[in-house]
Structure formats: C-alpha cells, structure tokens
Write a structure and sequence with these properties.
Layout (H helix, E strand, L loop, with lengths): L2 H12 L8 E3 L2 E2 L10 E7 L2 E6 L4 E5 L2 E5 L4 E5 L2 E7 L10 E9 L2 E6 L16 E3 L1
Antiparallel strand pairs: 1-2, 1-11, 3-4, 4-5, 5-8, 6-7, 7-11, 8-9, 9-10
C-alpha cells in the first residue's frame, strides 16, 4: 500500500470530523488567513498521488505525500513533491473557463508556481512550512 492510499483511507475514515480550515501551501495562504473554510468531502489515491475533494467543488492533488497528521484538530502534510489546488471562481458557474489552479512543484532550488490566476506569488524559497495545511 502506498502512503497516498494509506492517507486516503485514514482521511475517509475521519469524515466528517476531520479538520477543516483555510488552506496553506508551503506557507502561502489561499486567500486571506482564515477567510475561507474548506471542508474535505472525499479522499482517493492513485499510486503515489493523493486527491482530496472539498465541499465547494475544489480539489487538492498531492504528489508523493509524506509525514501527514490528520484528526479533528490537525490536517497537515509536511512533505510532497508537487501540490495542485483547483477551484472554480466563487459565485460563478462551474464551467471550464471559470476553473482556476495553483500548481506548485518542489525542485532542488525550492518551489516553482504555475497558475492561471495572475496575482499569486510563489512561496518563500526554500519553503520551510509544510506542503499542505488546513488552519
């Protein structure tokens, strides 16, 4: 069993009491701190890839997750090689033109960020915060 599959099973077993909160990826908040509350509704795995689905249709894909902690008070994945967050513009139709993404890739020099949302800055280099947190 891969770590991703183990995490998916643990997270699914904790639904609906698993920690919800505002998303941080390598120390960078998605939105303002504690502005949005994201609730996980499903977890799955494909090989070394963990995929989480949230109540507003958002998805978080974590590649090679490791050192995770999950319960009703903590949701954290300390290590990953890549993290992709996808969401639809809030208040708009869930159509392809309204789908946004942040795609962080961890490399030897730190993180790079690709996005179709122009105002997001890449994380501090090298990242010292966990790959994924709900706070």
């Amino acid at each position: 069993m891969t770590v991703a599959r183990e995490y998916a099973e643990r997270i699914d077993a904790l639904l609906p009491i698993i920690k919800s909160g505002t998303l941080r990826i390598w120390g960078e908040w998605f939105g303002r701190p504690h502005d949005n509350i994201h609730n996980i509704v499903e977890a799955s795995a494909d090989g070394d890839i963990l995929k989480l689905t949230f109540n507003e249709g958002e998805s978080l894909t974590v590649y090679n997750p490791d050192h995770g902690a999950f319960d009703d008070r903590v949701f954290m994945i300390k290590f990953a090689t890549r993290v992709r967050w996808e969401w639809y513009l809030y208040g708009e139709d869930r159509s392809p033109e309204n789908l946004r993404f942040l795609d962080y890739l961890l490399g030897p020099e730190g993180c790079t960020l690709q996005t179709n949302q122009g105002f997001i800055k890449p994380p501090d280099q090298p990242p010292t915060s966990p790959a994924v947190e709900l706070l």
